[in-house]
Amino acid sequence: MIVTFDLFSALTDSRTGAPRVLAELATERGWPQSGEELYDRWDGHNKALQRTATAPTTFHDLSREALARAWAELGHDQGYVDADTARLEDSVGEWPLWPDVAAGVAAVARDHRVGLLSNVDDDLARRTRAHALVDPALVMTSQRLGAYKPSREIYARAAAEAAPDRLVHVAASARDVRGAIEAGLPTVRLVRPGHVVDATGPRPPVEVTDAAALAEAVAGV
Question: Which spans of this chain does the record mark as coiled coil (predicted)?
Fold first, then answer.
């Protein structure tokens, strides 16, 4: 069996990592917004763009456009967009993993092959701390698969890449949980702060609140 993990919700505490960088930008420029406010504005546009994105559009393209829209809404200088996008991408290696991740993923890896299933580009995935915990051959990005979450296509292509092995996905965010389940992929929800299940979507069949419980959970799916 192959077990994939969502990169920026299940494994990485992106809501701590990215706002730190954005708070630095705000302080340097005297912007009134907090790092969290800037992140929420950027992340909202990013996710909206991903809902309709198709190849060959890259995650970098989407992130840059999302930042441009966010800065425009807030009245910030558009001349910062390219440099700010690069600064965010360069900082990804500093974004922390959730405290339970290293041991939890290692426990799953004792019995199964482990990988990532993420909307990012290949080079960005390689910069993250989570990349070192998984099989590099199983880092399934939107760039590699040519589709974006929450489209069913990305989950179908990931399952096809895993064949003949069975693929189980560990998700945390509402759209990833719903997307994987509706695509028919066996799914385990790893509960993370700031993420809830989509109220109008299917309920995840298995939920755990700590990555330490994942090895048992995926074995039972």
Answer: none
CA atoms in the 13 A half-sphere facing the CB of 49: 22
Per-residue pLDDT, averaged over 126-137, amounts to: 98
pTM over 0.85: yes
Q: Rounded CA gap, 60 and 111, in Å?
A: 34
Q: Find out whether 7 and 125 touch, Cβ atoms under 8 Å.
A: yes
Beta strand 139-141 with 2-5 is: unpaired
> How many angstroms separate the CA atoms of 67 and 169, rounded?
29
- 140: pLDDT confidence band, cut at 50, 70 and 90? very high
Give CATH 3.40.50.1000 domain extents, the chain: 2-13+97-219
For tokens 């096809």, what's the residue?
160
What architecture is the 14-94 domain classified under in CATH? Orthogonal Bundle (1.10)
pLDDT of residue 221: 86
Separation of CA 123 from chain center = 14
Q: Is pLDDT above 90 for 127?
A: yes
Sign of the dihedral defined by the CA atoms of residues 84, 85, 88, 93, in that order? negative
**What is the rounded distance in angstroms from the CA atom of residue 54 to the CA atom of residue 38?**
26
Class of domain 2-13+97-219: alpha beta
Name the average pLDDT for the chain: 96
Please state the rounded mean pLDDT for residues 188-193.
96
